[in-house]
Structure formats: C-alpha cells, structure tokens
From TrEMBL:
InterPro entries: Cation/H_exchanger_CPA1, Cation/H_exchanger_TM. Keywords: Cell membrane, Ion transport, Membrane, Sodium, Sodium transport, Transmembrane, Transmembrane helix, Transport. It is a multi-pass membrane protein. The chain crosses the membrane at residues 26-43, 87-107, 114-132, 182-205, 217-235, 241-258, 270-295, 307-327, 347-369, 381-402. It comes from the Bacteria. It is found in: Cell membrane. It holds the Pfam family Na_H_Exchanger. It comes from Limosilactobacillus caviae. This is Na+/H+ antiporter. Its main location: membrane. Residues 11-401 form the Cation/H+ exchanger transmembrane domain.
Length: 652
C-alpha cells in the first residue's frame, strides 16, 4: 500500500510542479520538480522513503524516454551528420572522462584512484536535451546548435554507461587492459545499435503486416509500441550490449516508419503521439522529483566538512567539462555548421546540462564492491546531484543573456480574435445558404463551441443580450398573435414556456421588469379567455402531443430567426462568445420541442465538413489579402484541422 501511495505522491508532485511552472514559467521546470521532490521528502510518511533499484529504473524510466527521443528524430539528418555525432558522443565523451578523471586523481590521489576518478567522470558525461529545452522554451536557439545538442544527448548516454562499466570492472579487479577495454567498448556500443535496429525493424514488419490486414488495430499496435523499449532494453542487457543504444536505435528505425506513414493511419498516429507525449512528460518529471526526494537522504549521510569539499569538487568538474565542450566546438573538432563560432561554442558549452541519465548512473553504483561497503557511493551520488543542479542553474542564467526571446509574428489575443472571425465567417456562410433547417442549427451550435475556449465569458454582456432578446421574443409573440398565426391554444402553451425562461434570469433592469410584467398580465388574460372556452385542455409543455410539439417548434423557429437577425447585426469579435451562448440558450429551448423530430445525421456531417472547409477558405483569403502573416495562418489552419479531426473521430 505504501508503494502505491508513494507513486501517487510522486505523480502529484510532478503535476503540482507543472502547474506552478505554468503560472510562473521564468524558472526552469526541472527546478520546480526538484523543489517539489524536496518538499515531498519532508512529508511525515514512510511512503516517500524510496529505495532506488538502478536496473528497474533504467528499464522502466530511462529506456522509454530514450526510445521516444529516438522515434522523434530524423534519420536523414542523423545519417548526414554521422561524423559530427560520433565526434560529440564518442570523441568528446572519451576526452572528458580522461581529462576530468585525470584531474581528480591528480589533486586527490588517495581519495580518487584512477578507476574511481574515471567512474565519477563517466557519470557526469551524459547530457540531457530535455533539460535544455525546458530552459530555452521561449528563446531562439540556432537550429544547428539545437540539432547538435539533441543528437549528442541521444547517444552520449551510452558512452557514459559503457565507460562507467569499464571503470567499475577495473575498480573491482584492480587491473585494466587497453585492448580489452577497446573491444568491450566497440562490442557494447555498436552491438547495441545493431541489435536495436534489427529488433526494431522486426517489430515494424509486424506492425505493418497487421495494418495491411486489419483497419482498426490501435488497441494492438499502440501497446506493442509502448512495450518495445522495455523489451528491447531487457534483451540487449541480457546479451551484455548497451540497452540504451539498442532502444535509441529502435526508436530511430521507428521514426523512418512514421515518415513513410505520415498521411496514412492518421488516427493511430495521433493516438500514439499523444500517449508518448504524456508518458515522456510524466517520466521526465518523475526523474527530477526523485532527485529532489533523494537529496535530503544523501545530504543526511554527509558531514558539513565533507559537504564543502564535495561542492568544490562538483564546481571543478562542471567547469572542466564545460570548458572542454567550448574548446571542442571552438577549434572545430566537431562541425556543427556554426555561423558565429564564438557564440555557438558558448551555447554548446552551456548546453551540457545533466539530468536523467547522470542521476540514473549515480544511483546504479553498487552498495557492495568485492563484498565490502562501497564507501564512496554516497559522496559520488551527491557530487553528481550538485553537478546537475549547477548545470541547470548556469544554463537558466546564461541562455537568456545570450539568446533573444522567441517571438511570434502574432499575439495570443490576435490569434483568438482571428479564430473567432474565422468561425463567424463559417456560421454566416451556412446561415445565408439554402433554407433554415434543424440540422443547420445543430451545426451552428457546434461551431460556436470553437470560440468559447478562447474568449473570457462576460456575464454582464450576456445578461444585457438576453434582456434585449427577451423583448424581441415578446414583441414577436405579440405580432404573431395579431396576425392570427398563433391561436389561443398555442398561446397557452407558449406563455408558460416563455415566461418561465425569462424569469430564470437573475438580473433585469427596472424597465425590462415592467415590460415583462405587462406581457405576462396580457398573456394571463389570453390564457383565462381560452380556459373559459376549453377548460378541459389544461396541459403544459411536458404533456404535448407530437403534433403540438411540432407546431410549437415551428413558432419557436420564427422567434429564433428574429433573435438571430438581431444577434447577427450586433455580433463582434469582442462579444462573440456571449452571442454564441445566447444562441445556444434559445437553441436548447427549441430542442425541447424537437426531441421527437428525426434528424438527418448525414446532413449534419456534410454541413459540419462544409463549415470546416469554409474556415480554411477564410484563412486563405485573409492570407492572400495580406491581412495577417503566414505564421498566423499556419496556427489557425492547425487549430481548425485539429477541431475537424476531433469531430471526425467522434463519428465512429
């Protein structure tokens, strides 16, 4: 039970950190998550006393994250930049481990023998592109730098893992063979890539075969896709290959499949993308929350004297690694197609932010080595944690100074205003074409919902509009009665329904109250006169026959048309949401009398699709007339297409 409670608390902390970041996004999300973890650790419950199982953590958390990163990459970019990627992920990783490890051994030879120094250096070698993205979300990062950081973090994780294993084996045995070390590195590194690519291709063949033979297989293919990284990682580790590289390679192979199927199996691809986005965000959040939870535990086992030395060592390690990254790019040991070599070198250096893999490697250190307590484990975990915090903090401070803020050619309010205009255009076109029908009213009501999520509802405006439409409603009833189009019998039914709906409003002006009361007295007189003639027919709206219901619906249709004319004449982007809500109020009232009337579902679908096409056409017309930018047009078309996709999926 405690384990379940612990998982719930972890997820709650992730969600809480996301909410706080949404309110104040200037601080990186990872910092909020670490703070949430620290607060979580302070709760008086044993449920937060987590025991880290490195193998399980790598397989269940890290493997899915790396697989998702792989399947979101471009194989074409990967193949065309293979030299640069190998330079950063193998060359720079090896140099960083050798120089950092050598420095630690040189200044503290008794504390850090070479094998132990290389272990610590290998732990802090992997970088985390997700942490970089959380910092640079609202900044203009050069494409070449962004691509280089993504692909580096994709593959240098495996370099760190392999180098850590080699250093750990050397520390245990006390012996190191260069030739054996090179062979192990090549076998584990490239063997993992080949194994993952082959197994990924086999799984893709299975998926494509299922998709050819069956149409709706999302319930089969999506679980296979989610389980793929866990299975591949486990099998690769059983063969003593790099499980991380295996899942990355499998993910890259899957990205090729998605490129080929971009315009097919749309529904399944949307579902897969959504599921992986949720999984990725949750797992990344869990890692940093766990770091926050573990920090008090690790600090509690460290004396103040040792803590000062550890902090100094962490700063030294970070400075060495960052300086090496800068020099590696500055002296063009890697070609990132820099347009400004000094700026791009500095951005690459600051982009060496550590995160999930570094934390996982630190906690993967064994508790016992050769049946003896591994006394350096706690200190190495703490050093790794402080390096992570330093790298995030420096990146959060440095990137905003160097990079300009990301700006769109349109504001949020402009997007909302133009979307409302787009929906209004579609509604007006539908209203002006052909004759009025119940199906068209339903479609217009559905279209109005597109605007509600982008406009703050103003109750005062709504109440004012309802007061005016009530006056129009009563005036229309008077006119229809004078023209003889409403009989006393029909008036009896409508007076009950109309006056009740009017008095449901909480606010009326003094003049409106007098107008409503005058009409109510008038209709009471009509009702009394009708009851003298036919006292036996005392029925209300709920007791209407199908014929009476249809007659009342026809009358309400006339009233709604008059109200719709008025609303159309005063509708603006500023009051569009309130106007839509008024329309919906009258439409729902009419549906009470239409519930026994059959609707043409095919016509509703046809009109809905026509409406979405009208919205796209309006955007293209506005773009052709240079009324707004291409970027805004793309955003509007994306929103319309998403709404259309949601609608078409609801037809199943």
């Amino acid at each position: 039970m405690e384990m379940i409670l612990g998982i719930i608390l972890l997820l709650t902390a992730v969600v809480a950190a996301n909410v706080v970041h949404l309110v104040y996004p200037k601080i990186p999300l990872s910092i909020y998550q670490i703070i949430a973890g620290i607060l979580l650790a302070s709760l008086p419950t044993e449920a937060t006393n987590f025991t880290m199982h490195p193998e399980l953590f790598m397989m269940v958390v890290i493997a899915p994250l790396m697989f998702n990163d792989g399947q979101n990459q471009s194989f074409r970019y990967l193949s065309s930049n293979i030299k640069s990627i190998l330079s950063m992920t193998v060359g720079l990783a090896l140099v960083t481990v050798l120089i950092t490890g050598g420095f630690l051994h040189a200044i503290l030879p008794e504390t850090f023998p070479l094998a132990l120094a290389f272990m610590l250096a290998a732990i802090v070698t992997p970088t985390d592109a997700v942490a970089v993205k959380s910092i640079t979300t609202n900044m203009k990062v050069p494409e070449n730098v962004n691509g280089a950081l993504e692909y580096e973090s994709l593959f240098n994780d495996a370099s760190g893992i392999v180098l850590l294993d080699l250093a750990l084996e050397t520390y245990k045995s006390g012996q190191f063979s260069l030739s054996h070390g090179i062979w192990i590195f090549v076998y584990v590194f490239f063997g993992g890539i080949i194994f993952g690519a082959v197994l990924g291709s086999l799984l893709i063949s299975l998926r494509t075969s299922l998709m050819r033979k069956h149409v709706d297989i999302g319930s089969i293919v999506i679980p296979i896709n989610v389980m793929t990284p866990i299975v591949i990682y486990w099998l690769a580790e059983e063969l003593h290959l790099s499980g991380i590289l295996a899942v990355v390679a499998a993910g890259v192979v899957h990205s090729i499949l998605y490129d080929r199927m971009r315009l097919t199996s749309t529904k399944m691809q949307m579902a897969t993308t959504t599921i992986w986005t949720i999984i990725s965000d949750a797992l990344n959040g869990l890692v940093f929350v766990l770091l926050g939870v573990m920090l008090p535990q690790v600090l509690g086992r460290t004396s103040l004297k040792n803590l000062g030395e550890i902090v100094i060592l962490a700063f030294a390690i970070y400075i060495i690694a960052t300086l090496l990254r800068f020099l590696w790019v500055r002296f063009k040991l890697v070609n990132i197609h820099a347009t400004n070599i000094n700026r791009d070198s500095l951005l690459m250096a600051l982009g060496g932010i550590h995160g999930t893999i570094t934390l996982a490697l630190a906690f993967s250190l064994p508790v016992l080595v050769n049946n003896h307590q591994f006394t350096f484990r706690n200190s190495m975990i703490l050093i790794a944690a402080i390096v992570i915090l330093i790298s995030i903090a420096v990146g959060a401070i440095g990137y905003p100074i160097i990079l300009p803020p990301k700006s769109k050619s349109y504001s949020k309010s402009e997007f909302q205003k133009e979307l409302i205009k787009t929906v209004q255009y579609a509604i007006n076109e539908l209203r002006s074409s052909e004759k009025y029908s119940p199906e068209k009213a339903i479609v217009i009501d559905q279209l109005s919902s597109q605007m509600t999520q982008y406009h703050e509802f103003n109750h005062n405006v709504y109440n004012q509009l309802m007061g005016k439409t009530h006056q129009i409603e009563l005036a229309t009833l008077d006119r229809l009665n004078k023209e003889g189009r409403i009989s006393d019998k029909e008036a009896k039914i409508l007076v009950i329904f109309v006056t009740r709906s009017i008095f449901r409003m909480h606010k009326h002006s003094f003049l409106e109250l007098w107008v409503i009361l005058w009409h109510r007295l008038k209709w009471r007189f009509i009702r009394h006169r009708h009851l003298k003639k036919e006292p036996q027919n005392n029925i209300g709206p709920k007791q209407l026959t199908e014929e009476q219901r249809a007659e009342t619906a026809d009358i309400l249709e006339i009233i709604n048309r008059e109200i719709d004319k008025y609303l159309h004449s005063i509708e603006t982007p500023q009051n569009a949401n309130e106007v839509a809500m008024v329309r919906r109020t009258y439409f729902q009232r009419k549906r009470f009398f239409m519930r026994d009337i059959s609707m043409d579902s095919d016509l509703i679908t046809s009109l809905s699709i026509e409406a979405f096409q009208l919205e796209h056409s309006y955007v293209q017309m506005r773009l052709a007339d240079d009324q707004f930018s291409q970027e805004l047009a793309n955003a509007l078309n994306e929103q319309i297409s998403t709404d259309e996709l949601v609608y078409t999926q609801s037809l199943d």
